[in-house]
Amino acid sequence: MDGQCQLLSEAELKKKPVFTSIEEASESPEEVYRMKLKIKADSLPDELFQFTNLQELVVSHCKLSVLNARIGELTQLQRLDVSANHLVVLPESICQLKNLKDLIINRNIIAALPQNIGNMVSLEYIDAWNNPLYVLPESIAALREVLREIDIRQVELWDEELEAMEKLLPNTKIQYTSTCDCHGTRDK
Question: What is the second-level CATH architecture of the domain 10-177?
Answer without folding.
Answer: Alpha-Beta Horseshoe (3.80)
